[in-house]
Design brief:
Distance between the termini: 74 Å
CATH architecture of the largest domain: Orthogonal Bundle
Number of strands: 2
CATH topology of the largest domain: Arc Repressor Mutant, subunit A
Strand order of the largest sheet: 1-2
Number of helices: 8
Shape: elongated
Oligomer: single chain
Strand content: under 5%
Largest sheet: 2 strands, antiparallel
CATH class of the largest domain: Mainly Alpha
Number of domains: 3
Length: 164
């Protein structure tokens, strides 16, 4: 299940402000307590902005990725600790970089933009339905125009035949 940035922030605030336990939040949202701890660490280090700056898609340079990968490979820090330090809202981004590095070496690591927010299933279904409706409207408008022109031609021909 996809947890949006807004949901992650809400989880953190419910824990810190309302005193809801990690176990209760874990059961309510169906996520592991270690992930909630990760969101808390992110919030405590970077503040609310780490969850609210979803408008901008961050660009990760090759050098930036390699530096993060080498920090992990040196073995002095955990993947989650590095990801928190970098402000990655999901530590699996760093994990993906490490896997790519191990499979293809330094050449496999390239500059890229951050992951775009994924649509939830309901949003995806709404978008598909919306796109289908837009196509249907376009088709019906074209059909309507065709019928109007055909009707005007029929009227014009009938007027011409009456005059003869």
């Amino acid at each position: 299940m996809l947890i949006t940035r807004e949901t992650k922030l809400a989880i953190v605030k419910r824990h810190l402000e309302d005193g809801v336990t990690l176990k209760e939040l874990s059961e309510e949202f169906g996520i592991h307590t270690s992930n909630i701890k990760y969101y808390l660490a992110l919030y405590l280090k970077h503040g609310e902005s780490v969850f609210t700056n979803s408008d901008s898609v961050k660009t990760y340079t090759r050098e930036y990725k390699l530096k993060a990968i080498k920090r992990y490979i040196n073995g002095n820090e955990s993947m989650r600790a590095i990801a928190v330090d970098l402000g990655l809202t999901d530590f699996s981004v760093l994990r993906d970089w490490v896997v790519k590095y191990r499979n293809g070496g330094e050449d496999a690591i390239q500059t890229s933009t951050g992951r775009k927010n994924y649509l939830l299933h309901e949003e995806r279904q709404d978008k598909i339905a919306s796109d289908e409706l837009k196509e249907r409207i376009k088709y019906l408008e074209a059909e309507n125009e065709y019928l109007k022109k055909s009707y005007s031609l029929i009227l014009e021909r009938s007027k011409q035949s009456k005059k003869k």
